[in-house]
Amino acid sequence: MSRIDQLLVRFRTHVSQPLRRDFPLSQRIWFVVYPPEDERRLGPRLPEFEMATKDVGLEWVRIDLAGSFAEWIHSRDDKDAIMGDPELVETYADPGYVDFIKDRLANAVTQHAQKDPERTVFALTGLIELYDFIHVSSVIEALDSKFPGVLLVFFPGERENNTYRFLGARDGWDYLAVPILPES
Q1: Which residues fall within 8 angstroms of residue 5, CB to CB, at 6 or more apart?
Q2: At 175, phi and psi to the nearest 5?
Q3: CB–CB of 158/168 below 8 Å?
Q4: Can you tell me the distance from the alpha carbon of 17 to that of 170, in angstroms, rounded to the nearest whole number?
Q5: Distance of alpha carbon 111 from alpha carbon 118, whole angstroms
Q6: Interior CA angle at 142 toward 140 and 65, to 5°?
Q7: Which residues make Cβ contacts (< 8 Å) with residue 160, sequence separation at least 6?
Q8: Residue 89: pLDDT band by 50, 70, 90 thresholds?
Q9: Beta strand pairing status for 59-64 and 120-125?
Q10: 126, exposed or middle or buried, with CB in 10 Å at 0-12, 13-18, 19+?
Q11: CA 29 to chain CA centroid, nearest Å
């Protein structure tokens, strides 16, 4: 069985558990952790995660970060100055890009407010877009503690104990998210 198949089996088991609305946000963030080399294999399989979510009566909203850095730069009045100096790109990316991502998440929740956001899985994909600009931890820590439902983070990297390493390249970061791993 492939790692993606194993992730799907584990995700189906996890998503079928009753949602606990009284849990703090840290326990309503699920990390689907997979090796970075599986990123391209995972993309076409995302509809299977969506179907598993809907099969248990939950809503699914995908928030794809692919292309978000270009969108953020394009939205800035000073984009020519930033792009003219590569050192400025990294300087401006944090906190500006973090705020842009945070707003994207908030907009997804707002757009879904007519339904039941507390029974929704907000699936965050395309994290590779963040690499070299901001840390995944910055995005997670920027979330409002009143974020409803579940944030499902497709995380290309590794986990050891509660330490996550994005793309296996950055220093680890301790977080209490619920891990969904391909191995037992």
Answers
A1: none
A2: -150, 150
A3: yes
A4: 32
A5: 13
A6: 60
A7: 172
A8: low
A9: parallel
A10: middle
A11: 9
> Tokens 């299977």 map to which residue?
48
Asked if 64 contacts 129 with a C-beta cutoff of 8 angstroms, the reply is no
Q: What is the pLDDT of residues 3-61, one digit of tens each?
A: 999 999 999 999 999 888 788 888 899 999 999 999 999 999 999 999 999 999 999 99
34 beta partners: 156
Query: No. of H helices and E strands in the chain?
Result: 7, 7
- For residue 105 the two structure tokens come to 């998440």
Q: Where are the alpha helices (DSSP H) in the chain?
A: 3-15, 39-42, 46-55, 68-75, 79-84, 86-111, 136-141
Residue 100 and residue 106: Cα distance in Å, rounded? 10
**Helix, strand or coil, per DSSP, at residue 49:** helix
Are 156 and 37 spatial neighbours (Cβ–Cβ below 8 Å)? no
Q: How far apart are CA 148 and CA 49, in angstroms?
A: 19
- State which amino acid sits at residue 49: F
Classify residue 18 by its DSSP letter. Answer: P
Token look-up 């907009």 returns: 107
The answer to whether 133 and 97 are in contact (CB under 8 A) is yes
